[in-house]
Design brief:
The chain is of the alpha+beta class and 212 residues long. The protein is built from 4 helices and 6 strands, in the order αααββαββββ. The longest helix has 45 residues. It is elongated and about 110 Å long. The relative contact order is 0.17.
């Protein structure tokens, strides 16, 4: 009985002891801070990359708007190389560019808005086998294109960049009970950053030739 009493007393003391709780709590807190820092850095990197992509898109659009020579598929492929350099993209199929030349036809005096009077398509080309714009598809983007007076021309530059989370935690998830998903953290993998830039030629009208 005396031995049993000592065992019970020891068990109560062991259960009520708080020795070692601070290191354990500290370790748990450190893991939470590391996780928070990792996810925060991932979101920061995503917004930084998106900002770089926006600047790169306007740079490419500005380049073609200043072009006085003929442009064509080879020229657009060169623009993609410039875009990849600015965005530091070196993965295959990570980016693509589409360039579309449009104008407002002079068959009447109304300005073109894509609805009451459609934009006319001169030419369109996209890299990496992406679909070219047709007159129908470019006018479906009328809400993105400013109203154009008769005889006016514009260059539409579209860019696309697939972003993979820097830390690779985009689709990791916590599970309970083996199969039930509790929550996901981070960003979805292959997040697409796209830009649609409309600019007027700075000099003569940009002319298209499939040989260039």
């Amino acid at each position: 009985m005396k031995t049993l009493r000592h065992l019970r007393q020891y068990a109560r003391q062991w259960l009520s002891s708080t020795r070692g709780s601070m290191p354990v709590e500290g370790m748990m807190g450190m893991l939470l801070l590391i996780g928070w820092f990792a996810v925060s850095f991932q979101f920061y990197d995503a917004f930084r990359t998106k900002a770089i992509n926006t600047r790169a898109s306007y740079t490419v659009a500005d380049l073609i708007s200043r072009e006085s020579d003929l442009v064509g598929p080879k020229y657009v492929a060169g623009l993609q190389k410039v875009f990849n350099y600015i965005t530091n993209s070196n993965a295959a199929k990570q980016t693509w560019i589409r360039v579309t030349l449009i104008y407002c036809d002079a068959y009447d005096n109304r300005p073109c808005d894509g609805v009451s009077k459609e934009f006319s398509l001169e030419n369109s080309y996209a890299t990496d086998g992406k679909a070219k714009h047709t007159k129908t598809t470019i006018n479906q983007e009328a809400f993105r294109i400013p109203k154009m007076p008769v005889g006016d021309t514009a260059v539409v530059v579209e860019t696309s960049y697939f972003y993979n989370p820097f830390l690779g935690i985009g689709e990791r998830e916590f599970r309970t009970g083996g199969n039930t998903m509790f929550t996901r953290i981070g960003l979805h993998s292959k997040l697409r950053f796209s830009n649609f830039v409309v600019t007027r030629p700075r000099g003569p009208r940009v002319a298209w030739d499939d040989r260039y």
